[in-house]
Design goal:
The protein is α/β, with parallel strands linked by helices. The protein has helices spanning about 1-5, 35-40, 65-75, 90-100, 115-125, 140-150, 155-170, and strands at about 10, 45-50, 80, 100-105, 130. It has a 5-stranded parallel sheet with strand order 1-2-3-4-5. The longest helix has 15 residues, at about 155-170.
């Protein structure tokens, strides 16, 4: 089905699974192992929601540290920790730094709300490990992009965040940059050229 439908990423929400609807099923539970094995076989990344829950239920199963065991057990599996992992975002940052196959993904967290430590991560030691996302329609493409522009990232880092890191994680060849990311510094007037997950891509 993955090949037939052209699926590029498998999405998991640990809060939604498990026998107890109030606790969820953390991503290192062995019941996920067959899913991870199949993703490795097909070369498909897995995007796992981390951090606090949206619904009023315990957030423990969203702790990023649970991805540590998964990344070690499946070094060929590309893992996206979605939504930064707040309030454990520094835990998520360390895991992305530790594991070559782990990335932090920013959907539902507009850049103007990024914690200072995470913005430092994007600008510095984590610039190759962060993938921009929107969580559209919760956050529009236009708003998410404008917020990225507003935090003053250098052009080369912005290119990595908006495009190159995502393509590398998907093992795609990096195409020429969108005109909005050209050295001339032109601004994107529409919602084209978006490459982060959480919405449409062109």
């Amino acid at each position: 089905m993955v090949k037939d439908l052209g699926i590029r990423i498998v999405r998991l929400e640990p809060y939604a699974y498990g026998g107890d609807p109030y606790t969820g099923l953390p991503p290192n539970d062995k019941r996920y192992w067959p899913v991870y094995l199949k993703c490795v076989e097909l070369g498909v990344p897995v995007a796992i929601q981390v951090g606090h829950t949206g619904p009023l239920m315990p957030s423990e199963c969203g702790r990023p540290i649970y991805l540590d065991e998964v990344a070690l057990a499946f070094p060929e599996l590309v893992i996206f920790g979605c939504h930064l992992g707040q309030p454990w975002h520094e835990e998520m940052m360390i895991l992305a730094w530790k594991h070559p196959n782990v990335y932090v993904e920013t959907s539902a967290r507009p850049a103007k709300f990024w914690p200072p430590s995470f913005l430092d991560f994007v600008k510095g030691w984590g610039q190759d490990k962060v993938i921009w996302g929107t969580d559209y329609p919760l956050v529009s493409f236009k708003r998410a992009r404008e917020d990225v522009d507003a935090v003053g990232l250098p052009l080369e880092i912005k290119k990595k965040l908006l495009r190159e890191n995502f393509l590398r994680a998907l093992r795609c060849q990096t195409p020429p940059p969108h005109p909005a990311l050209s050295p001339r510094g032109g601004e994107d007037k529409g919602e084209e050229g978006m490459s982060g997950i959480g919405g449409r891509r062109k």
